[in-house]
Structures are given as structure tokens and as C-alpha cells.
Write a structure and sequence with these properties.
five-stranded antiparallel sheet, binds uridine-diphosphate-2(N-acetylglucosaminyl) butyric acid, Uridine Diphospho-n-acetylenolpyruvylglucosamine Reductase, domain 2, 3 domains, 6 helices, Uridine Diphospho-n-acetylenolpyruvylglucosamine Reductase, domain 1, alpha+beta, 21 strands, Uridine Diphospho-n-acetylenolpyruvylglucosamine Reductase, domain 3, four-stranded mixed sheet, 292 residues
């Protein structure tokens, strides 16, 4: 049987995950694997399945809280160029899951393709954005998807077409292990016009969100018809800190971290927000970020 030692050239042992996350928090991954091709990726996945080793996929680390103890098993990262290609073909644009969302947006705008510009300022990789159907009031990524290439836990690669996919508020039906690549169909528009609209959105986002601080974006999903930020704000928690983590005083659905912050600090703030909002409004907040 194969072993993870067969992948020693692309594997780091006990690699600290904090530098790969936006919160800059979290312990090490037992195995941190960065495959160089889709074939190598499938090989690693098959090996993990045979060995019954848990596999997690790390995108750009912008929507995740890694526990201080770290994680056992394999953390995969699609950091190689091969997973980050972006190519335009008429009104269609294809992007690798490892590409950053901002890279995809700037490519589409340059090509005079509108739609994804509504996501300006949202951090993340294309894979992560698809998985959680990233978006805001002006639209989400799922509405532009035509097909997605995925890899299953068995290491099989296949394409899921638009009609077999559903995207809802901050969720998608993409439940295979890995998202490899996606094709989007966008609308033609003058690049200057798209840029103007994007600039306005960006200014608004910068004014209301702590974008220059270390954070994981919004911590909770918005409960139906309500804003988690408003609820936490009304519960009087803006500016509340535990250790070196703080509920942002700019937007209460963001937790910002400063050097020395631990996952435990963030987790305690999460619990506090949940319990206060539940006690005051009878609303249970659901996490948007993933906790590893
Ligand atoms: N509000 C407060 N206090 C706060 C924060 C918000 O009173 O501390 C109020 C605002 O004044 C506004 C309402 O709550 O009346 C909604 O706030 P906002 O416009 O900031 O939007 P949001 O619902 O909090 C959502 C997404 C953001 C996205 C923005 C802009 C979620 C959980 N959040 O925020 O996405 O950037 O819309 O489109 O869906 C993310 O998902 O990580 C994220 C940041």
C-alpha cells in the first residue's frame, strides 16, 4: 500500500497553519500537502482514502478559524499555478479553484464582462467562494456558474453542470471533496462602467467593514430577513474583546485579531455573541466561517 511518505516532495509535516489564514491564528497541520497537478492531487486523495486519513482543503484561509491544537490528517492546498489559471472565451470565463476571487474579478472586468464585479472586496479563493456561494446584497457567485470540475473522496474527477447544482444563501450543493475549476457566463458591458460601479461598492464596503484588519470576514450568516451584525451591535457587543481578539467596532459581525490572539479567544467571542443574541432576541446565530 502507498504511504504519505511517497509524497514527501510536496508534503510538510506539522506545518503551522496560522500564516495561511486571514486571522493569523491556529496550530499546525499534521501533513500539509501542495500537489502540482490534478493527477498528483487525485493520487494523494486516493492514498488518503486507502489509509483512512482525514483530508481538508484550505483555500485562501479567509473564512476559517483553525483551533490552537491544529488538525490531524492532511491539509491540501492548491497553491500551484496550475490550479490558478483564468481564461476568457467570449462571454465565458474559466478559473481554477486556487485563483483568488479578486484575480478572477479583475480579469473579467478587463475583458468587459460584468457580474462578478458585485463581489469586489470579498476575500477568498475561487474554490472557497463557490463552496460557500460568496456574495452580498448585489449578487453571489453561484448565479454565474455554468459548470464546475470536482474531485471526489475516491479521487475521481468529473464535471457538474449548472442544472445539477444549486446555490443558496452562503451555501452550495458542491459537496465533493475538492473543487478544481469552474466556468462562468457573464454579461458584456463597458469596462469603464463596470469599474465605476465597482469603485462605489468598494468605497461602501471599506466604510462599513474593517477591511484593513485581520479578520475572517463575517463570522455568522445573516438569519432570514435580519442582519447578524445589527443583532450583535444591538446586544451591545461592539468593541468587546477577549485576549487579543475583538468584536469589530466598525461591523459587529467581524471579529478582528491582533498578534498573540488565539483560536480560543475568538471562540469565546463567538459563544458570547451567540448567547447574548439568543437571550435578547431569541435568534440562534449560525456560523458562516468554518472551524477546524
Ligand atoms: N449593522 C449595524 N451594526 C453593525 C453592522 C451592521 O447596525 O455592526 C446594520 C447596517 O447598518 C445595515 C445592516 O445591519 O443596516 C446590514 O449591514 P451590512 O449592509 O453591513 O450588510 P451585512 O448583512 O452585515 C452582508 C454580507 C457581507 C457583505 C455585505 C455587503 C453576510 C453574513 N454578510 O453583510 O459579507 O460584504 O452584506 O454586501 O451575508 C461575508 O460574508 O464575509 C461578508 C462580509
Amino acid at each position: 500500500m502507498r504511504s504519505l511518505d511517497d509524497f514527501s516532495g510536496i508534503t510538510l509535516r506539522d506545518e503551522p497553519l496560522a500564516p495561511y489564514t486571514w486571522l493569523k491564528i491556529g496550530g499546525p497541520a499534521q501533513y500539509f500537502v501542495t500537489p502540482r497537478s490534478a493527477a498528483e492531487l487525485a493520487d494523494v486523495i486516493r492514498c488518503c482514502r486507502d489509509l483512512q486519513v482525514a483530508v481538508r482543503v484550505l483555500g485562501s484561509g479567509s473564512n476559517i478559524l483553525v483551533r490552537d491544537a491544529g488538525v490531524s490528517g492532511v491539509v491540501l492546498r492548491l497553491a500551484d499555478e496550475t490550479f490558478a489559471r483564468v481564461a476568457v472565451d467570449g462571454q465565458r470565463i474559466t478559473a481554477g479553484a486556487g485563483a483568488s476571487l479578486s484575480h478572477l474579478i479583475s480579469h473579467s472586468v478587463k475583458a468587459g464582462l460584468a457580474g462578478l464585479d458585485a463581489l469586489v472586496g470579498i476575500p477568498g479563493s475561487v474554490g472557497g467562494a463557490l463552496h460557500g456561494n460568496a456574495g452580498g446584497k448585489n449578487g453571489d457567485i453561484g448565479q454565474f456558474v455554468r459548470s464546475v470540475q470536482v474531485v471526489t473522496v475516491a479521487g475521481d474527477l468529473f464535471v457538474r453542470r449548472e442544472d445539477e447544482l444549486t446555490f443558496a444563501y452562503r451555501s452550495s450543493s458542491l459537496n465533493e471533496l475538492i473543487i478544481l475549476e469552474a466556468e462562468f457566463e457573464l454579461n458584456r458591458e463597458d469596462p469603464d462602467e463596470i469599474t465605476r460601479r465597482m469603485r462605489t461598492l468598494w468605497i461602501m464596503r471599506k466604510a462599513t467593514q474593517p477591511l484593513s484588519f485581520q479578520s475572517a470576514g463575517c463570522i455568522f450568516k445573516n438569519p432570514r430577513g435580519m442582519s447578524a451584525g445589527w443583532l450583535i451591535d444591538q446586544a451591545g457587543l461592539k468593541g468587546t474583546s477577549v485576549g487579543n481578539a475583538e468584536i469589530s467596532d466598525r461591523h459587529a459581525n467581524f471579529i478582528v485579531s491582533t498578534p498573540g490572539a488565539t483560536a480560543e479567544d475568538v471562540r469565546r467571542l463567538i459563544d458570547l455573541a451567540r448567547s447574548r443574541v439568543s437571550a435578547q432576541f431569541g435568534v440562534d446565530l449560525e456560523l458562516e466561517i468554518q472551524i477546524w
